[in-house]
Amino acid sequence: MANGSFSVQAAVKIPAVYVALGDSLAAGQTPDSKIDAGYADLIAQELSRHQPVALYTKQLAFPGFTTEDVLERIKSKPAQEVLASANIITLSAGANDLLRLVQANPEEGALAFQQVQVDFALNEARLNMEAILAELEERAPNADIYVMGYYFAYPHVRDNQKEGTAEQLDRLNEILKNSAKKAGATFVAVDKAFGENAVKKVPNPADVHPNLLGYQAMANAFLDHYQKGWKVEKRELPEPNPMTFEEIQKMQEKQSEQSSSVERTSARPSTQIEEDYLALQKPLPYI
């Protein structure tokens, strides 16, 4: 650890209480519909290399969440305690409001959408994002909030098919950026780190999720804002350890059985981290 690293930027939180909110990118979904280390896990790993981390959890993240789902989740009773203690929050929300309206044909490399539907969805995403950030200001008063932007999710399609959808993703990022600025949060752009031809970071033509290299780029975009000089190096990436949705569900059931045999009155959120955060449904074709 560099001398004085804690005083270089006021944003550094000691000890860190880091809560990742949002969709499957926050949860760490892989390009083959499993769950593994995502950008939130890599951020937590890097934080722990430099400073004390009292809590890291992604229990409030869920694959397929729209902005409406995220708003509902942060209002839920299970979210109250963990949000109240948070001092770092990352938020991925908005892509599913848009991408569920995009018809992708990976065999033909084609994309299609209805502009009227997209316009309505993006406006709803804007209203919900503003409501989410207002709720977080109340429920997580000590947290610095980082709104994560999105990358172009279809690098494998034909070049002449990219422009229209890329423009809609740019509009979404602009909405997220403006909402963050209005709420005093920090917008974390990731699109330049990916570009429109990031086939090495989004390797599956039939899936929009990044691999570990993509999540590394997202984590480093956050760290650029949090503390200059902190970076997840390629040599620091964890070995792949993907779990299927069914495996996670079975693990949760086992943990639930074990928990029912002991007193739970003294349980703290810090005992419910990593994979103990989801009652996962079947994989979804979007983020």
What does this structure look like?
With 287 residues, this protein is α/β, with parallel strands linked by helices. It has a single domain, classed as Rossmann fold (3-Layer(aba) Sandwich). The chain contains ten helices and seven strands. The chain has helices spanning 24-27, 39-50, 67-74, 77-85, 95-99, 115-139, 159-183, 191-194, 212-226, 245-259, and strands spanning 16-22, 53-57, 88-92, 103-105, 110-112, 144-148, 186-188. α2 (39-50) crosses α9, α3 packs parallel to α6 and α6 runs parallel beside α7. The radius of gyration is 18 Å and the shape is globular. Residues 1-10 and 263-285 have low confidence and may be disordered.
| Total domain units | 1
The unreliable regions are 1-10, 263-285
CATH superfamily: SGNH hydrolase
CATH topology category name: Rossmann fold
CATH architecture: 3-Layer(aba) Sandwich
C-alpha Rg (nearest Å): 18 Å
CATH class: Alpha Beta
Helix/sheet category: alpha/beta
Largest sheet: 5 strands, parallel
Instruction: List SSEs in N-to-C order.
Output: EHHEHHEHEEHEHEHHH
**What is the distance, rounded to the nearest whole angstrom, between the alpha carbons of the first and last residues?**
35 Å
| DSSP E strands, number | 7
Query: What's the helical proportion of residues?
Result: 40-55%
Strand content: 5-15%
Summarize model confidence as the mean pLDDT.
87
Strand order of the largest sheet: 2-1-3-6-7
> What's the tally of helices?
10
Shape: globular
